[in-house]
Design goal:
Elements lengths: L2 E6 L2 H13 L3 E5 L6 E5 L4 E6 L4 H7 L4 E5 H7 L3 H4 E6 L5 E8 L8 H15 L3 E5 L2 H10 L5 E5 L6 H4 L5 E6 L3 H5 L2 E12 L1 E6 L6 H14 L1
The structure holds adenosine-5'-triphosphate (ATP) and 1-O-pyrophosphono-5-O-phosphono-alpha-D-ribofuranose (PRP).
Length: about 230
């Protein structure tokens, strides 16, 4: 049996994850054709590479199907209730930094804080007969954050991509999404609420608390940990 290391198979986290391990003397590589999700690990014995979507890595860690995995804090916190019981944070990796935020149309001059949003959402419901809609793919984190902040009259609508476009398309009045440079928000005439940062995320190496660690997996894990020093 080998220690299974889950790494994003494409997208912004893949290359940086490979480079992060390379710096520590561990070479990850994709094998086979461009489209084949097979990989190889050199520089440490007993480790196999599992290439997966960043969004699926939390579930695979929690199920114990991989021992280690790289994905963003946002995805672990969103997808795993009581994540601390299922995974352990091994190391923040210093890339993939992004903030999960709440944003409203820049032209809403009276709405700059969560309190303002609460007032606006009550007024919105009274006026339109339905709740103010917030588009997001982070349902759990957003609901928890708004409920704790005392914002009540909202409805979450699902958006799995191009979330900032939902306001212009009139399928939502506000959004909760990841931002890094802020360019997408600006381009879509949205502003972040001053107290609207839900979570600061970055790519992180996680260890599964539920996976089985036999002698060979323990040995491989120790060898990796030594490299991380
Ligand atoms: N603009 C950004 N800058 C930096 N990191 C980002 C940015 N947008 C998203 N991320 C982070 O990248 C990680 C993966 O998100 P991303 O959207 O790249 O996955 P994905 O490619 O959609 O995954 P999947 O393969 O599941 O579709 C998340 O943890 C997220 O916080
Ligand atoms: O603040 P910025 O630097 O502009 O980055 C933010 C954008 O990056 C991500 O989108 P992604 O590129 O993953 O596309 P998506 O719409 O498919 O999620 C995120 O969902 C934002 O839309």
């Amino acid at each position: 049996m080998s220690l299974k290391l889950g790494v994003p198979s494409k997208g912004r986290l893949m290359e940086k994850s490979f480079a992060w391990f390379e710096k520590r003397g561990i070479t990850l590589s994709r094998t086979g054709s461009d489209r084949e999700y097979a990989g190889h690990v050199d520089g440490v014995d007993g480790v196999s590479l599992v290439l997966l979507s960043a969004g699926e890595i939390p579930r695979e860690l929690a199920a114990g199907r991989i021992h280690l995995g790289i994905t963003g804090t946002d995805l672990v916190h969103e997808k795993l209730p009581r994540w601390e019981q299922q995974v352990q944070e091994v190391a923040p990796l210093g890339f993939g930094q992004a903030d999960l935020i709440i944003a409203v149309p820049a032209c809403w001059v009276d709405v700059d804080t969560l309190d303002d949003l609460d007032a606006a959402s009550s007024a919105f419901r009274a006026r339109h007969g339905h709740r103010l809609r917030i588009a997001t793919k982070y349902h759990r984190l957003v609901r928890e954050f708004l409920t704790d902040a005392g914002v009540a009259d909202f409805a979450l609508v699902d958006s799995q991509g191009a979330t900032e476009g939902t306001v212009k398309n009139e399928t939502a009045e506000a959004i909760a999404d990841i931002t890094s440079t802020g360019e997408t928000l600006r381009a879509n005439h949205l502003k972040i609420l001053s107290d609207g940062v839900i979570l600061k995320s970055q790519a992180t190496l996680w260890r599964s608390r539920t996976a089985a660690y036999g002698p060979s997996e323990k040995k491989a894990l120790d060898a990796i940990m030594e490299r991380l020093g």
